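Subject: Sanity check before I submit

Could someone independently write out the structure tokens for this chain? I want to compare against mine line by line before I put it in a report. The sequence has 107 residues.
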Amino acid sequence: MTKKLHIKKGDTVHVLSGESKGKQGRVLEILRKQDRAIVEGVNLISKHQKPNSAHPQGGIVKKEAGIHVSNLMLVDPKSGKPTRIGRKKNSEGKLVRYSKKSGEEIK
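---
Independent answer below. Compare away.
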């Protein structure tokens, strides 16, 4: 069974703790088994890259590493501030996420 997470790929999130605290970025990938997300421009690591066709020079490449989902908070689409997430049924009876701060539905 897959876990329900409060964030999805493409969401804008705010980092609550760690080296990148206070930064915002877009979620590029969700690693569901590890409860982690890869966020654009957040938690950058230096990776030693062997020369290949993509990087013919090789060398040290900066790359995003995973960050635990408990350290991320979704950004409210209305106010642009971090908010908690709730789930409710909309008018069509479909379960949707909504912002607890503004009450707005999150696409």
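---
OP: Matches mine. For the report I'm noting this point. Residues 11 and 35 are 16 Å apart (CA to CA).
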